[in-house]
Amino acid sequence: MDYTGMQHITPHIPQINDSISTHCQDWLPYYGFPRFFTLQFLKSWYLPAPEVSPKAPIEFQLLSRQQTQWGTVKMSFEVKGPSHMSLYLSPHAGASLSGWSFGGGMLRRSGESFIFYSHGLDAPAWTFWIEILVSLNVSPEEGLISLAISAHYLSGSDGRS
Hints:
- The protein is mainly beta.
- The chain folds into 2 domains: 17-46, no CATH class; 59-154, Agglutinin-like protein, N-terminal domain, N2 subdomain (Immunoglobulin-like, Sandwich), CATH 2.60.40.
- It has strands spanning 20-23, 43-46, 59-67, 72-80, 84-91, 95-100, 113-118, 126-134, 145-152.
- β3 and β4 (72-80) form a beta hairpin.
- The radius of gyration is 19 Å and the shape is globular.
- The two termini are 20 Å apart.
- It comes from Sinocyclocheilus grahami (Dianchi golden-line fish).
C-alpha cells in the first residue's frame, strides 16, 4: 500500500517482478477485487502461485429463508472458517437490504456492503441473518442478492501459501 508503486520494492523482493497488474472492473462489485479490512483499491498486483487447498476449508450454508409478513425476505446463514473472514453483499436490481444482524441491526447505507469478521481460535460457527426488501415488480423467488465470503488463513498450518 505505497502510493509510489512498486519501484522501491522490486530491488529487495525480486519475485515482485513476476506480479500481474490488474485494473478496476467498474461493472463488478468492489471493482472485482477482494477486500481486506475496509481498504478498497482501484488497482492491484497479484503474484502467480499454486492453488491453495486448506486442511480446514470454509463451510458456508443457508440455514433458512422465509418471507416475512411485512414483505421482506429473511435469510439466515452459518459459516465455519478461519479466524478472519470477509463477507460481501450486493443486492440485485429491485432489492435492497432492509436489516441484518450486524451492529445491532442498524444499516448504515444501502447497496453493496462489506463485513470483516474475526475471532479467536476454536470459536463456534458464525451465524448471521440478512433481510431484503423486494420491490413490487420483482418476484421474491428470483435471485435477490449476490453474497460471497472469503477466508483469510493467517495462522496454523494453513497460514502460508
